[in-house]
Amino acid sequence: MELHDTHLTLWRKQWLVVYTRPRWEKKVDRLLQMQGIEAYCPVKKVTSQWADRRKQVILPLFNSYVFVRINDREAYKVRQTLGVMNFVYYMAKPAVIQDQVIEKIKEYTHNCPDVEVVSLQEINSGDRIRVKKGLFFDQEGTVIRVQGKNVILAFDHLNCALVSNFPLSNVILNTIHSIPISFN
Fold first, then answer.
1. Is 18 part of any domain?
2. Which of 44, 102, 113, 174 has its Cα between 20 and 30 A from that of 60?
């Protein structure tokens, strides 16, 4: 019975996660598919603004990660693919992603092409943060309050405080200048 179970796991395909070189996600996805390996690189549509134009670009949803549906025998082929660093491990084994999780990601990216993955970084009142996109791009301010997925931010330039509400996905914690401060 044990031999039979081992034989089945060699041929049974599961979704695993590979870690790629930075900005190689779509290339790795294409290279794996050219080898006949089922690969999936979820993408999102982003509008980029340059000084002279706006352009919609397709970017990976997860930086440096690609999903592969393989059996044990295909693992070596995946590891040898240009741009693949290694598998993502959990408890000393390659991390297995359930089929329904991949299906949910596919559904979300299809129905919401501008979906975004937001880091669950800890942002608190008094933290110094910087805006990473939008009208106030690259401006720094102090967090007054966090409300769900939004941050109320005070900009302290021009000798006045401009208070604005930003989505968490549009700000970055500036750990060097975080100061404890309370607003009542």
1. yes
2. 174
Higher pLDDT, 176 or 44: 44
**DSSP β-bridge partners for residue 166:** 151
CB 67 within 8 A of CB 40: yes
Residues 128/179, Cβ–Cβ less than 8 Å: yes
- Going by pLDDT thresholds of 50, 70 and 90, the confidence category of residue 98 is very high
Mean pLDDT of 13-25: 96
What pLDDT does 153 receive?
Answer: 73
Domain membership of residue 160 (yes or no) is yes
**Length of the chain in terms of residues written:** 184
State the Cα–Cα distance between residues 6 and 73, nearest whole angstrom: 12
CA distances from 11 to 72, 74, 88, 94 (A): 7, 9, 20, 16
Residue 90: CB atoms within 10 A of its CB come to 10
Q: Are residues 19 and 62 in the same domain?
A: yes
Structure tokens at 122: 């800890």
Structural domain range at position 135? 128-177
Alpha carbon 65 to its chain's center: 8
The whole-model pTM stands at 0.64
Say if 85 falls within a structural domain. yes
Domain count for the chain, please give it.
2
Reference 67, options 48, 41, 45, 87; nearest CA is: 41
